[in-house]
Each structure stands twice: as C-alpha cells, then as structure tokens.
Amino acid sequence: MDMQGTRQLAATQDQAWAALNNPDILKACIPGCEKFELTEENCYNVGVALRIGPVAAKFSGTVKLMDIQPPHAYALQFEAQGGVAGFGKGESKVTLTPNPEGCELSYTVHSKVGGKIAQLGQRLIDGAAKSLAEDFFKRFEQELQKSNAAQAQSDSSSQQPSTPPANPTSRWLWLAAAVLAGALAWSMMRP
Question: What is the pLDDT of residue 155?
C-alpha cells in the first residue's frame, strides 16, 4: 500500500518541529500508544493498541530513524506484529515546509500488511483509517496551539530564551511514535 497526505498547520516550521519532538504533546495525540523504548541509537521498540472494526489487537514492533534533517524532514522504517490480527512493515517520510499560513506537514507511507486486518472490508478499513488520521491531527493541532500559547505567555513573562530538551534523541522517539501509530493504523487497515 502507498499512501500520502498533507496537513496545513497554523504554526511556524520551528514550532511544529518542536511540538513533534515534545513527548507530552505526542503522547496525548497518538491513539493507542503504550510503549517506546530505545534499544540502540535511532532504533526503538514500540507498542500500540488498536481497534479496527471487530478486530482489536496490541501491536509490538520496531522503528528505525534515518535521514534526520531538523527542522525539515526525517525518514523511518517500521515493522510490527499483532499476533493473529496481522502484521505490517514499511517505510515513511515526513517533511515540514514553511509557507505564509505557517507550515505544511507532508507524509508518505509505503507498507505491506497481512492477517485478519487485511481481510476486513475496504469500506470499513477506509473509514477507520480516515477516522484515526483525523483524530491524530485534530489532537495534534489542539496541543500545538496550547503549547504555542503557553510558550508565548512564558516568553512575555520572562526575557530568558527557552532551553531545548537535554536529549535530542529522546525527542525523536516521540516523533517516531506519532508517525508509527499513524502508519500502523493506516497500513493495518488497508489491504
């Protein structure tokens, strides 16, 4: 399956990048994300629980980050197993492009799936995929607005610049979680 999409964000490229690297924001946005554990540099074990129509399963897998270009883009490879519910594997790329309205988030996903989920009807799969994607982006935009409002308030009350998180690798963990959850949800739901 090949999938691509874009989403206009009412934030600058730097603000969107920071939000995509904020574990609290992404944890609040990713449907079913239960676990992210660093196993080696830029490689993570991930756990996600999903319900697609009559099929509910917990998927565990790995995400490997590559071609990291802050604040513009990154690529990742993923694979996950959900027992009899199915499996998925593939690759994804996410890009942030500044524009007059803020920035545009673009993504592509190339994946293969199998198991029970791949056998669900196309109409059910398409509806669930659209719903999960919309849920993630709606939550992400709300959290991005809250984060930017809090940052603006903090900046106005203090003239000291904010400091970035101490461990940039841990920020990528949550960025990968968001993309993996979306990629798994969409790839597991589309034959």
Answer: 80
Q: Which two tokens stand for residue 103?
A: 């920035």
136-145 per-position pLDDT tens digit: 888 888 988 8
Domain total for the chain?
A: 1
Reference 106, options 119, 97, 117; nearest CA is 97
Residue bearing tokens 């099929």: 55
183 φ, ψ (degrees, to nearest 5): -65, -40
Residue pLDDT, tens place only, 24-58: 676 677 788 887 777 887 787 888 898 877 888 89
50 burial via Cβ count (<10 Å: 0-12, 13-18, 19+): buried
Range of the domain at 173: 2-189
Q: How far apart are CA 72 and CA 13, in angstroms?
A: 8
Which portions of the chain are predicted below pLDDT 70?
A: 1, 21-24, 26-27, 121-122, 125-127, 129, 158-191
CATH number, domain with residue 61: 3.30.530.20
- The pairing of strands 55-69 and 43-52 is antiparallel
Distance of alpha carbon 153 from the chain centroid: 27
3-state secondary structure 54-75: CEEEEEEEEEEEEEEECCCEEE
The encoded tokens of residue 13 equal 């490229």
